[in-house]
Amino acid sequence: MTVTGSFQPPPYPYDRLGDLRALADALSGGVVDCSVGTPCDAPPLSVIRALAVSGTERGYPASAGGPGLRRAAADWLQRRFEVAVDPAAVAACVGTKEFVASTAHYLHLRDPIRDTVLYPAVSYPTYAMGATLGECRAVAVPPATPDGSGLNLSAIDPADAERALLLWVNSPANPSGGLTDLGAAAQWGPRNGVLVFSDECYTEFTWDGPPRSILNTGLHGVVAVHSLSKRSNMAGVRAGFFAGDPDIVSYLRDVRQHAGLMVPGPVQAAAAVALADDEHVEAQRARYFERLSFFAAQLTSLGCPVDLPAGGFYLWVPVPSRWPDAWAMAEDLARVGGVLVSPGDLYGEAGAGFVRIALVQPMVRLRLVAERLHAAGWAI
């Protein structure tokens, strides 16, 4: 019997790049993968040691995170943003992607009358997918600027606001690198009875001014979501946390405990060590800024001008008229430069006029791409 109306997962966005990867990998020296923001640099040795010697692998870890991790997270929030958060209003998550993907479902159980997730129109695909997985409506909020950055909150239909469970904000934003007015979002949410969740995983790589958090506006009605994947090159161990409104954090902590979502004990120990260490983050900031500056200069010299982002480690490159669309530009970059990049429509229709380049590869690999492009006379 054929079942109609059942959920069929769409193709995973980056799986669509297989043909482009093959083109790039055919060049001598192989593909230089700048499609996904996967860190290539090592975490501190102290973090690796903590993974090995914590002695916490024998027992079940606390789903909310043990006292050491929650205290380290609260101390980091105080140190970085001058925000006082009680460790009781902090909880661990198994990397932030699973949190983004599951939160709409858990909130919908709590408030089944509301069925809408608001998210940036140009954004990380998991915000919209989380709505789908939670059997909610995904409603995109138009950007505030032509490059897809920020949120035009005044464009939200009042009927959508009335049905909204939550609003996602992301600053610095993936993919554009733009900064969102977090204060405006924090005011809009409570005024409309909508929870605001702020994905701040790139905040340590804010280039335009100091790092910001939505928690700077207070804790009522807001939750900040943080990851160690980018900050400390720990994507492989899946460590993150969320903090903010004590009532919301408590609810999500409890329901996630029932779901068996637990950060492994050794990972919690390593995360606490990483959060206590700011020195390695400064070194990583310098690496990413060097890579961004180098590659932006190379593209500009080849006739494809691009500005440095306000934050993050992506270049959000407008597609020149030489190519009909972002996929054509990405194919040309793969064939000639051996570099794999992401067409902007992977991040929403409003991103179709851009390609995203993740500057996560070491300088020697980025120089190889530049040499290939220059040698081939790749110029706009």
Describe this protein's structure.
- The protein has 2 domains: 126 residues, Aspartate Aminotransferase, domain 1; 233 residues, Aspartate Aminotransferase, domain 2, CATH 3.40.640.10.
- 39% of the residues lie in helices and 14% in strands.
- The longest helix has 23 residues.
- The chain is globular and about 60 Å long.
Helical stretch count? 13
Please report the total strand number as a whole number: 12
Q: Return the string of H and E elements.
A: HEHHEHEHEHEHEEHEHHHEHEEEH
Q: What's the CATH superfamily of the largest domain, by name?
A: Type I PLP-dependent aspartate aminotransferase-like (Major domain)
Question: How is the topology of this model organized?
Answer:
Blueprint (H helix, E strand, L loop, with lengths): L17 H8 L6 E2 L11 H9 L13 H15 L8 E4 L2 H15 L5 E5 L5 H8 L3 E5 L16 H6 E7 L11 H10 L3 E5 L22 E6 H4 L8 E5 L1 H13 L6 H11 L3 H23 L12 E5 L7 H12 L1 E2 L1 E2 L10 E5 L4 H13 L5
Helix pairs in contact: 1-12, 2-10, 3-10, 4-5, 11-13
